[in-house]
Specification:
The structure holds two protein chains of two kinds.
Chain A (H helix, E strand, L loop, with lengths): L2 E6 L4 H15 L4 E5 L13 E6 L12 H10 L7 E8 L9 H12 L3 E2 L4 E4 L6 H28 L6
Parallel strand pairs in A: 1-2, 1-3, 3-4, 4-5, 4-6
Chain B lengths: L5 E5 L3 H13 L4 E5 L7 H5 L6 H4 L2 H10 L2 E4 L10 H7 L2 E4 L5 E2 L12 E3 H8 L15 E5 L3 H11 L12 H9 L4 E6 L10 H7 L5 E5 L11 H15 L8 E7 L1 E7 L6 E6 L7 E4 L2 E4 L3 E2 L19 E3 L2 E3 L2 H4 L7 H15 L1 H5 L11 H6 L3 H13 L13 H8 L14
Helix pairs in contact in B: 1-12, 6-7, 9-10, 15-16
Classes of the chains: A alpha/beta, B alpha/beta.
The complex binds flavin-adenine dinucleotide and flavin mononucleotide.
The site of flavin mononucleotide has 21 residues of chain A, from helix 1 and strand 4.
């Protein structure tokens, strides 16, 4: 299954993170496509795809300008996203104590509300750390994939009983 | 097979870095060199963005990827017009992109502007940021300062002047400049914004941040309500200012800040020295205001230098296109004028990169020698990225415990460290 990486950015960090993440997924032999939320329409969302969102925060805890139309379309059109799975990575800055990472949180709430299912925890990048955002995103996504396989394993246990050969 | 395209970017600020990013994506095989007159990359991110806004400066880690992973060459310590001419660069590279920013503070255009205690925000922010080519000497601000201009740079200056030394923990402020200022800090500051609160150019978050500084009492005698259906930013700004006015530090008050919205300067007055500033109301009929002041800081934007830009004549802003001539482009502040945040230079660079891509077929026809075709003595003085990293580590090593780095305020010193010509003495900066 192809992984779709979608980023919402203003100053470019989320794009860098998206590219690094895609490269690392590609290196693992997985098909992946990166797109900017500013040129992505909600009509393109597929129920049977896996999405990775990387989204920063601006204003007072808002999504970046480039991602606002996508978010507004979700809110107005309210497509049924049940069956869609996604992972969420939020970029922000703890300097903004009260709205830290709210852009991604808002997008996450919206997707969940529309029936999509998040896998793994929301990843967080704090710009005040000066760490390379790409490495942070790659490390987070490795954890998400582990969670996913752990869940699969548990599901399998559920289905077949505790059979080490399963 | 095509010979690789050779690209020169003049200026390593946000716009130079963003356009290099875009061009690297479009032309993976090209040779890209970013030139800068300074030994350090990143332009105003290093020398404009306030020293206590380290997280804004952290965009440097995104730009560093260009040099560390994307095969973009940094050639610092090369000033176009002094070390090499624009024509020489155009002869060596297929594509030259000007991303040199805007150097000059705009003038306000009122009488009295040349009095000795009228300072430009560009100069002050460069001083606090330890800019190595800024003439030293501490401004004589006095007890009472009038700041003309209501934008974010103006707020940066205000914040520098009302913070206490302990508020600069983890910053990279020039401590010598700070120490000089806090010996006799201002006790009263007038912040003069031409626009009403609805249309003011300031970011509400920057305004509310002022409220976290202890010992400051804010006042405002202008209307601070905005219409209910005003744009969100205006509502947020009004709320931020209202929040500031509620703060009452009581007996701990160190400094009074008077906010003025809707007032424009008429004149700066004084007999050989600044004594007061006269303001007129922009929209309403109100008597002119006379504010006593020992000094004035102007923060009304930055401008093209009025002379000839390296043979191109006097430049003006162009919002339509970044194309200047065959193979010659511009992006960032030198294209649009001094408006916009770091992020706005990203979309600007993307648009200019598209124009470059659209015209590249013609440019490809010419074979150019690239960076290697520059005179030997020019390449010898260049500071490449690994040489810059020596300065970078020397600065972080030299930082006291409560500072993120200690910037060296001497360009010669930076160049010496970069070129490994620096003989460490126990007295020298950078020594442990
Ligand atoms: C005081 C101040 C504070 C700011 N704070 C913020 C903030 O907090 N957040 C924000 O988003 N934006 C901020 N900005 C705006 C932001 O800095 C600009 O949008 C951005 O830096 C413009 O980028 P630029 O690359 O066009 O110009 P610059 O950043 O000025 O870069 C130009 C580069 O070109 C080099 N150069 C110039 N002439 C030559 C030459 N002849 N040869 C070789 N090199 C040359 C310069 O050395 C410099 O490195 C601030 C601006 C100022 C002035
Ligand atoms: C004007 C401005 C407002 C911001 N507001 C917030 C905020 O409210 N909350 C937050 O967590 N980060 C905030 N940030 C920080 C950015 O989200 C952070 O720098 C991020 O790395 C930017 O990613 P991008 O380059 O992909 O846009 C703000 C940054 C700027 C410049």
């Amino acid at each position: 299954m192809k992984i779709q990486v979608l980023f919402g950015t203003e100053s470019g960090n989320a794009e860098v993170a998206a590219e690094d993440l895609a490269q690392s997924v590609r290196n693992d032999g997985q098909e992946v496509e990166v797109q900017d939320l500013s040129s992505f329409s909600i009509a393109e969302l597929q129920h049977d795809s896996m999405y990775v969102f990387l989204c920063s925060t601006y204003g007072e805890g808002d999504l970046p300008n480039t991602a606002l139309p996508f978010y507004a379309d979700l809110s107005v059109v309210r497509p049924d996203l049940s069956g869609m799975r996604y992972a969420m990575f939020g970029l922000g800055d703890t300097f903004y104590t009260e709205t830290y990472g709210h852009g991604a949180t808002k997008l996450d709430d919206k997707l969940t509300e529309l029936g999509a299912q998040r896998v793994g925890k929301i990843g967080r990048y704090d710009a005040s750390t000066w760490e390379p955002v790409g490495e942070c995103a790659v490390a987070w996504f490795a954890g998400v994939l582990e969670d996913v396989s752990a869940v699969r394993w548990l599901q399998r246990i559920g289905q077949h009983g505790l059979d080490p050969a399963a | 097979m095509d010979t690789p395209l050779s690209i020169a970017v003049i200026g390593s600020g946000p716009s130079g870095c963003y356009i290099a990013q875009s061009l690297r994506r479009s032309f993976p095989q090209s040779e890209i060199t970013i030139y800068d007159r300074l030994a350090s990359p990143y332009g105003l991110v290093r020398y404009g963005v306030a020293p206590d806004h380290q997280s804004t400066k952290s965009i440097q880690s995104q730009f560093a990827r260009l040099f560390e992973r994307e095969d973009v060459r940094f050639a610092g310590n090369i000033e176009v017009g002094r070390d090499i001419s624009l024509d020489q660069l155009r002869n060596a590279h297929n594509i030259v992109v000007l991303a040199a920013g805007l150097p000059e503070d705009r003038t306000v255009g009122v009488p009295g502007e040349n009095l000795p205690e009228v300072y430009r925000a560009g100069r002050l922010t460069r001083l606090f940021n330890a800019h190595p080519l800024e003439q030293t000497g501490v401004p004589n601000l006095g007890k009472s300062v009038a700041i003309i201009g209501g934008g974010n740079v103006s707020i940066d200056v205000l914040r520098m002047l009302i913070k206490q030394p302990e508020d600069f923990v983890n910053s990279d402020i020039d401590d010598a400049v700070l120490a000089d200022y806090v010996r006799a800090p201002a006790g009263r500051i007038d912040f003069i914004c031409r626009s009403t609160i609805t249309n003011a150019p300031s970011d509400p978050v920057m305004l509310s941040e002022l409220g976290r500084i202890r010992g400051v009492r804010f006042s405002c005698s202008d209307p601070i309500d905005v219409a209910e259906d005003a744009p969100r930013a205006a509502l947020a700004r009004a709320k931020a200012v209202a929040g500031l006015l509620e703060i009452d530090p009581g007996t701990e008050t160190r400094v009074e800040v008077a906010l003025h919205f809707g007032w424009a300067p008429v004149s700066i007055n004084g007999d050989g020295h600044v004594r007061n500033v006269e303001l007129r109301s922009v929209n309403d009929v109100r008597p002119n205001l006379h504010l006593d002041a020992d000094s004035v800081v102007t923060a009304v934007g930055f401008d093209y230098d009025s002379g000839d830009w390296h043979g191109l004549g006097a430049l003006k802003a162009n919002l339509e296109t970044g194309v200047m001539d065959l193979g010659l482009y511009r992006t960032g502040w030198i294209k649009r004028g001094s408006r916009g945040t770091i992020a706005e230079n990203r979309s600007c660079a993307k648009a200019v990169a598209e124009e470059i891509v659209a015209g590249v077929d013609t440019l490809k026809q010419q074979t150019k020698p690239g960076y290697g075709g520059l005179p030997e003595e020019v390449r010898a003085r260049a500071i490449d990225y690994s040489a810059w990293k020596r300065v970078d580590s020397a600065e972080t090593d030299a930082a006291p415990a409560d500072r993120s780095r200690r910037k060296f305020p001497s360009h010669e010193h930076m160049v010496a460290i970069a070129h490994n010509n620096f003989v460490q003495t126990s007295a020298g900066p950078g020594a442990n």
